[in-house]
């Protein structure tokens, strides 16, 4: 039995944080990693700070660990830059460290004295992650930071400006993970579509090179901006290795609201792009903020009419939550919370209906499924359209790739026996 201290990593927020947590775990040479929080001697909180509510969630979690009284707590992630100082000063955490310091995690956890080390916002990851603990898919971080300055967003100020990972390192990591049995790769970053910006590289070129690595079966992308779907990118839309689902961040469909949010996309060009992609057989998702300051009933109705014109099948929609330190946080015209929730439901109901119609339309298309998990004797996975499927089978299917031809399309998902 090992006498090493056990470390549990609690990850909040986005896929970039998921990757960062794996980087930290891969650098823990003198500690044991546990997926059981209750047995941990040390808890690393990889935090999110995208909204004030995210900060509250992180702080509540830390308070819970403190109350249990067993584990020593460390804070990293985006919240280290916004709430790290107060949590450190109030002795809620033993140490605080920024994202640039995560590769030093093994040494940091050995420190005898409390520390506060944010590092810098210019770092570029070079860790090769060889395994993803508890995951059937591999996350590959290809860039960090964002050059956009949307009115509601704090992330550029805690992640820095956009910079890209070294292409050779990315391909080395993909190759290593493919050898270790991973077939699906999810590209992550703060702003994935800006990969290679200012460096004479492009996302499309990287994808082509990744697709040539032996063992790569499917590549999924994180959120892209409409202006990042280039002509070069569109030439790859028929490639069999590219997931037939793209998530393209619109945030709103009212031109007035897009201007208020300091967005770069324009609705008329957005709809033309979405229609081209839909003609190629793609399922399409987006991010959408409901109830941003200034969203009047008239503007909301305009947004809904525009949404009905979009071939959306997936949506990551949420009601606006104030983030201190952003221009939106001081804007007038706040939307009542109950009104925002009603609008959110109207939006999600529309997209849910679109998704059901899409799945029925493509019901004769074989689904290429990576089975990710098992629960209550049923297997769960995602197909090439990023739709969930639940499979009944007497065999252990976790981690397997299946081509499913016979399945039932129900409103809440697809179902099959295998």
3D architecture notes:
This protein has 418 residues and is an alpha/beta fold. The chain is built from 13 helices and 20 strands. The chain has helices at residues 15-26, 52-68, 79-82, 84-89, 105-108, 155-159, 167-179, 203-211, 231-234, 255-260, 267-279, 297-309, 337-361; strands at residues 6-11, 32-33, 42-47, 72-77, 95-97, 115-117, 138-141, 143-144, 163-164, 184-188, 218-221, 245-247, 283-290, 314-319, 367-375, 378-382, 388-392, 401-404, 408-410, 413-417. The strands form 5 sheets. A 6-stranded parallel β-sheet has the order 2-1-3-4-5-6, sandwiched between helices. It has a 6-stranded mixed β-sheet with strand order 18-15-16-17-20-19, with helices on one face. Strands 7-10-11 form a 3-stranded parallel β-sheet. The chain is globular and about 60 Å long. The two termini are 40 Å apart.
Q: What's the gist of this structure?
A:
The chain has helices at 15-26, 52-68, 79-82, 84-89, 105-108, 155-159, 167-179, 203-211, 231-234, 255-260, 267-279, 297-309, 337-361, and strands at residues 6-11, 32-33, 42-47, 72-77, 95-97, 115-117, 138-141, 143-144, 163-164, 184-188, 218-221, 245-247, 283-290, 314-319, 367-375, 378-382, 388-392, 401-404, 408-410, 413-417. It has 418 residues and is an alpha/beta fold.
């Amino acid at each position: 039995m090992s006498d090493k201290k056990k470390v549990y990593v609690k990850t909040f927020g986005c896929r970039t944080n998921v990757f960062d947590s794996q980087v930290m775990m891969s650098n823990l040479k003198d500690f044991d990693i546990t997926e059981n929080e209750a047995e941990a001697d040390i808890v690393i909180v990889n935090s999110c700070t995208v909204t004030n509510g995210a900060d509250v969630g992180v702080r509540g979690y830390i308070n819970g660990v403190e109350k249990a009284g067993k584990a020593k707590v460390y804070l990293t992630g985006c919240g280290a830059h916004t709430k790290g100082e107060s949590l450190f000063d109030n002795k809620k955490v033993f140490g605080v460290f920024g994202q640039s310091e995560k590769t030093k995690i093994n040494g940091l956890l050995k420190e005898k004295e409390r520390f506060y080390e944010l590092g810098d916002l210019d770092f570029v990851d070079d860790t090769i992650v060889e395994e993803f603990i508890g995951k059937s898919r591999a996350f590959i971080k290809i860039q960090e930071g964002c050059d956009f300055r949307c009115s509601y967003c704090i992330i550029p100020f805690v992640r820095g400006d956009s910079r890209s990972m070294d292409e050779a390192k990315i391909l080395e990591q993909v190759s290593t993970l493919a050898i270790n049995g991973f077939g699906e790769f999810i590209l992550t970053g703060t702003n994935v579509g800006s990969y290679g910006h200012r460096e004479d590289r492009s996302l499309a070129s990287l994808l082509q090179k990744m697709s040539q690595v032996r063992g790569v079966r499917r590549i999924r992308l994180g959120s892209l901006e409409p202006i990042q779907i280039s002509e070069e990118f569109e030439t790859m839309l028929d490639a069999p290795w590219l997931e037939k689902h793209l998530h393209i961040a619109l945030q709103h469909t009212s031109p007035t609201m897009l201007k208020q949010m300091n967005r770069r996309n324009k609705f008329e060009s957005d709809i033309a792009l979405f229609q081209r992609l839909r003609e190629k057989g793609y399922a399409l998702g987006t991010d959408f903020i409901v109830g941003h300051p200034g969203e009047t009933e008239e503007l909301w109705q305009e947004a809904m009419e525009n949404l009905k014109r979009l071939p959306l099948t997936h949506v990551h929609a949420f009601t606006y939550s104030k983030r201190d330190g952003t221009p939106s946080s001081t804007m007038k015209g706040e939307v009542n919370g109950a009104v925002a929730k009603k609008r959110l439901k109207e939006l999600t109901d529309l997209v849910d209906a679109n998704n059901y119609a899409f799945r029925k339309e493509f019901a004769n298309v074989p689904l290429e499924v990576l089975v990710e998990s098992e629960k209550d004797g049923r297997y769960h996975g995602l197909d090439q359209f990023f739709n969930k499927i639940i499979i009944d089978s007497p065999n252990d299917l976790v981690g397997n790739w299946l081509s499913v031809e016979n399945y039932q399309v129900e409103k809440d998902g697809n179902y099959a026996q295998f």
